[in-house]
Write a structure and sequence with these properties.
By secondary structure, this protein is an alpha/beta fold. About 3% of the residues have low confidence.
Length: 354
């Protein structure tokens, strides 16, 4: 009798385990985000979770504190839990080859979110904003606001690039330099530091403090004599914050020593405030709601066993394959249009920007 009870218990437990795995895994979507330290990723994560849940999915949303091993562990857990699809904004795009091989063995599909995942055949789709265009818009903003097309110049400028382990950083830089390089070649833009190589101007981990320290050095070495600085190409807002802090500490921001044109990306709240205060000139706006809804559509198609919608099958080569991509359209915000773009659209409340 005891044996029979024990056997029944084992069967009940086994069945409940299968049931549990099925009910959680069946519609469970894993969303792996890099860090909560930058506002945009919080927004991305929250939008993804809300929109997926609205469609009836369960969501395992994780942030990895910008630590590659933490992200790998989180992905392994998602695989063990039986997630159907993994949506991954990678920290180091080249560090996920092994864990994605495990995902593929378990028949789990993978969407690279915002950043391309490199060196893996197990990336099914990529959803992002047009990263080259982001750089082009930043370059064109500088071109227009300095009057370069009208032949004005020469102007002094310094260049920054993003994290070298993020494929996006190369695209942002490529796009911006496609506009700015001809003016450098013609001598209409001068880079007093002469630092133009991607590896020299790149800021690891998109760190604000590293960008600030590099700007401090650039000022000391090249602008101490009072030479005018007309523009700084910053690929994103976390770098722009560091650059502005450095310039402010060096006495910029007065009538005699105005801030240069400073670009950015993400429209993070502190940066929009900096734009309103005249410290940062512009920021690329990538509406994370648009990207999230595109990814939710991709997830829906994958779960139904269909092809997901893409609009680019040429650009994003991850070293092993060209990943079918959906590119959303970036635009820029500055002091003239931020209200319409960011407040009227409901992205921020007016009170967020005070
Ligand atoms: C994103 C940017 C972001 C940067 C730093 C890039 O991959 O595309 O929007 O500013 O990472 O987090």
């Amino acid at each position: 009798m005891k044996k029979l009870v024990a056997l029944l218990l084992v069967i009940v437990l086994a069945l409940s385990f299968v049931g549990c795995k099925k009910s959680s895994g069946d519609n469970l979507i894993g969303v792996a985000m890099p860090t909560q330290s930058l506002q945009r990723w919080n927004q991305d994560g929250a939008n993804m979770k809300a929109q997926l849940e609205k469609k009836g999915y369960q969501v395992d949303l994780q942030y990895a504190n910008n630590d590659v091993n933490t992200q790998i562990q989180q992905l392994e857990n998602m695989i063990t839990k039986g997630c159907k699809v993994l949506v991954i904004a990678s920290i180091d795009g080249s560090a996920l080859t092994d864990v994605l091989a495990k995902a593929a063995e378990n028949d789990i599909k993978v969407i690279a979110y915002d950043r391309l995942i490199m060196n893996s055949e197990n990336v099914d789709y990529y959803a992002t904003f047009d990263n080259f265009k982001v750089g082009v818009i930043q370059g064109e903003y500088i071109e227009e606001n300095l009057g370069l097309k009208e032949g004005k110049g020469p102007f002094n400028m310094e260049l920054f690039a993003g994290s070298p382990d993020d494929n996006n950083a190369l695209f942002f830089n490529g796009g911006a330099m496609s506009i700015l390089q001809p003016y450098i070649d013609k001598g209409k833009i001068i880079i007093p530091s002469k630092q133009t190589e991607f590896t020299t101007i790149a800021i690891h981990g998109w760190s604000s403090s590293t960008a600030q320290a590099r700007m401090d050095n650039l000022i000391t070495a090249n602008y101490a004599s009072g030479k005018k600085l007309d523009a700084v190409l910053s690929p994103n807002d976390s770098l722009a914050i560091g650059i502005v802090t450095s310039l402010k500490n060096a006495g910029f921001g007065t009538a005699a020593k105005p801030y240069p044109i400073i670009t950015g990306q993400d429209c993070d709240k502190p940066n929009v405030i900096a734009m309103i205060n005249g410290q940062q000139s512009m920021s690329i706006f990538k509406d994370t709601r648009t990207l999230a809804s595109q990814v939710v559509e991709m997830v829906g198609a994958i779960v139904e066993g269909k092809e997901a919608p893409v609009n680019d099958t040429k650009t994003y080569d991850n070293g092993v394959k060209i990943v079918p991509s959906f590119l959303c359209d970036p635009v820029y915000a500055d002091v003239n249009n931020y209200k319409e773009l960011l407040v009227d659209s409901g992205y921020y409340k007016e009170s967020d920007l005070q």
